[in-house]
Amino acid sequence: MGTLYYGSNAAPIQMCDRLLAHLKVVVSTKLRRGEAFTITWAHSDPEPTGRTTIWVQSAIPLRFVFEKDEPEQIDAHSLKTLADAANQGNIILSPEDLIALERT
Which domain does 27 fall in, by range? Predict the structure, then answer.
């Protein structure tokens, strides 16, 4: 499992390395262009039910930590899907999206 550290929040955001690698590409591209957007996901166990949305912009510290030493292979279709969502202003990570990226 990879970890996304966001802002001054001490609680890390856990996700598979594959998803984190795809998000890193999209987030880096958007921030390099000076474009802010949001990322939303549903909570999973053991968190309480609900969802979280974070506002991603260049002034907020962000760190990607990968469990594996080797870089993940980037899938062009998955990357385009995430980039299109970011360009519309909000990446929504559904449980199905998370599972699909873990398996590819």
Answer: 2-103
CA-based torsion, 70, 61, 47, 102: positive or negative:
negative
DSSP code of residue 68: S
> Closest Cα to residue 28, out of 78, 10, 20, 98?
20
Q: Note the Cα 28 to chain centre separation in Å.
A: 11
Question: Residue range 57-61: average pLDDT?
Answer: 94
**Pairwise CA distance, residues 28 & 47, whole Å:** 28
pLDDT in tens, 11-35: 888 888 999 999 999 999 999 999 9
Q: Domain tally for the chain?
A: 1
Tell me the whole-structure pTM to 2 decimals.
Answer: 0.86
